[in-house]
Amino acid sequence: MFYRPEDGHGLPHNPFNAIVTPRPIGWISTRGQDGSENLAPYSFFNAVAYTPPQVMFASTSTKPDRGDTKDSVANIRETGVFCVNIVEYAMRDAMNQTSGPWDRDTDEFALAGIARAECDTIACSRVAGAPANLECRLTEIVKLKGDSNFAVFGEVTGVHMRDDCLVDGIFDVLRFNPLSRMGYRDYTVVREKFELKRPGE
Which of 78, 96, 119, 133 could cross-link to 160 by cystine, CB 3.0-4.6 Å? Predict the structure, then answer.
């Protein structure tokens, strides 16, 4: 099968997300200028640089009470900071609860019963029990082609790692099993890993 996206795929559901998979989930926490808290998952997310460490996530839809975007991007525009919380399998239901189309006054931490802690380098809450948190300062927001597509880039200014996830100096993902997004309503979980050495190593 071949199709041009501009012509449509002719399938019951869009296959694009099922092709680019699995995708890590950036559980983005933000705080508005008014002190309101927001927590929402984004699967268009990844690390993009080592030195300095940088990450990105993309928001691709709008909410009626946020104009051209959603709560996360709106809050980051106001404050210039955000936190990426890593999602473990055990937190899948709480993460999913925060993905709803809640209004801007909803505190998703409280809604989903998630314990929060204050970040160290930025004025923002983080998911207290997450395997890791990346505190970030905004570097740029890039408007992408499309009505409501924005890519948000941030420099990591602080890193939290849960002590039980460190094994002999290695951050061991098998200690918490990262959750990843697939296509449609599908997710997957990392339960095994293997090592490959690059040529010349």
Answer: 133
Mean pLDDT by 10 residues, the chain (201 residues): 96 95 97 96 98 98 87 97 98 97 94 98 98 98 95 98 98 98 97 96 91
Total domain count, the chain:
1
Residue 7 lies in a domain: no
Please report, for the domain that includes residue 169, its CATH number: 2.30.110.10
Say if 6 falls within a structural domain: no
Look at residue 8 and tell me if it is in a domain: no
State how far the Cα of 56 lies from the Cα of 153, in Å rounded to an integer. 4
Q: Does the model's pTM come out above 0.70?
A: yes
**Domain of residue 88, residue span:** 22-186
